[in-house]
Structures are given as structure tokens and as C-alpha cells.
Amino acid sequence: MNKATQRILALAFAVCIGGTAFASGLNSNRDTELRPTGKGYGENDENAAAEGRSPKGFARGSARSNAITYHNGPVMIGTTNIYYIWYGNWSGNTATTILTKLMQGFTGSGIYNTNTSYYNGASVHVLNSVNFVQAINDNYSLGKSLTDANIKSIVSNAITNGSLPKDSNAVYFVLTSADVKETSGFGSQYCGWHTHGTISSSDIKYAFVGDASTQAPTGCIAVTAAKAPNGNMGADGMASVIFHELSETVTDPDLNAWYDRQGNENGDKCAWNFGTTYTTASGKTANVSLGGNDYLLQQNWVNSGSGFCALSY
User: Fold this and answer.
1) Total structural domains within the chain
2) How far, rounded to the nearest angstrom, does the alpha carbon of residue 292 sit from its chain's CA centroid?
3) Domain limits at 299?
4) Cα torsion 106, 236, 184, 187: sign
5) pLDDT tens track for 183-200
6) pLDDT tens, residue by residue, 104-119
7) How far apart are CA 15 and CA 222, in angstroms?
8) How many CA atoms lie within 13 A of 26 on its CB side?
9) Measuring CA to CA, how many Å separate 308 from each of 71, 120, 274?
């Protein structure tokens, strides 16, 4: 596929997910570029092909071979704080423990260290440090059918009503239970997304990740129930998406820092690539151990040399 065709396909994808079809990002020494939308994590192309469907979003390896470059926007340096909003019904669901341990295990890990290959305009690199601060529950405050604007409102309401602090050096994750729909394309156009917005006069970074176990089990979850490393297919699928969105947020929080000419961020360039896996003692499939748990997480793009996908750096 030539470069012109790649650009056309990438632009068509940006339109179909309802994001802005970003215009050219011309520099004096660059061709026309696409800007990231924050929704580049399309469904698993191999699973879609097995079902006789065309994959939604970027297929594995398409438009990802070019280098990632810096576009002068801010990068999240220092320790990144994390807040979870468990939206919907999570009562008795082991996901709350599985995904909390995931976030608590990132600091100092080889897989999160891949993000330290990115830096800001002052050449200060992302730090291999994540601080899980707090989690709260939201019992369907805006119903079971959510828009992108609703996701922002859920974060905004949690901050303005005092349930969570306002923190501009944080990522707020809205994690929805399996019965909640995100109507702009969850499970068909994306498996999760990140963005930023003004909340209480501050630039706040937030992300959406949903339990796809009933809505898109083959499209957004790379492991079967029998092979889920933590015995919870929904949570095990969310774990990889959470890492993807967190990596993109710290390296491209305002969608104007690190991405390639097709608008792919570091997570997009390695989506659905898991590298070397291992079989756990209980016969499950995993590729990394964090916080005492095994997980199956996608690789991340390392910004070194010509770049490469890796599970550690």
C-alpha cells in the first residue's frame, strides 16, 4: 500500500469514528500529517477476519511502520496520578482488584518504562512512576447509554462535587460495567479512548475503557475466558486497553505531542501485538507480571532509533 492510500484510509477512519477529520499539520520540512483523535485503538483485526468481517479501525501493522515524532505539545512528566471511576454495577466483580493491582504495579516495571523514551520540549523524559490515588463508584448517574460528552460529565461531576480532587497531573479513567454502552462506537470503532478538556478551569486528562465481555468479546478482548490470566475475561481485556490509553495519555495528553504521520500514537503503533507470551501455572496466557498478577498486555512503541514494539525497555 503506498503512502497516499494509507493517508486516505487513515482520514476515512477519523471521520467514521465521529472525531474530527483533522486537517494538515504542515511544517516547513514535512508532508501533510494527520492529527491523532485519541480513538485509534480499533478492534482486533484477526478476530474480525475469523468472523468474516472487516475490522474496524486500524488493522494490525497497517500505517504503523513510520517513525513517531514530537509536535511540540506538552508531555506528562513526573509521577502521573491515577483516579478510577467505576461506573455502573461492579458489585462482586473481581475486576476492581485486578485492575487496581495493574495500575499499582506499573511503577518501575519494564513495560511502563517504554514510555520513558518520550520527552518534552526541554528534553525532560516521562518518569517510570504511576501513583494510583483513589477510586470511586458511580451508580449509573447518567444511565446505561453514554455519549462522549457524558464521559466528560462523569469526570467533571466527580471533581466538582468533591468525590475526587482536581488534578491536572492525573489521568481519570471512567471504567464502565458490561451493561453500559458508549454510543459513539464502543466495540465497533474503538475499545477505549483518551482525551482532555477544561474542567473547573483546568486542563484535565481523562479516558474511557469499558467491559467488552458482552458487547464485543471478540473485537476488544484478545484472550478467551478459558485463557484469561486472572479468570475474568472482561477485566483481562480491559487491562490491555488501560495500558494502551495510559501510555498514549502521558506521551500525548493534549493530542499534539508524540504521534506519527498517520496520527498514530505510541499505543496505536503496537495495538494487538503482544510479543512473547507464557503459560501460567493455571494454564492461562500472559506476557507480563505486575503487582503479583499475570496480565496479557499489548506491546508499546519505544521511541529509540527507528522505533520498535516491546514489552520492556
Assistant:
1) 1
2) 22
3) 3-310
4) positive
5) 999 998 999 999 999 999
6) 999 999 999 999 999 9
7) 26
8) 3
9) 19, 20, 13
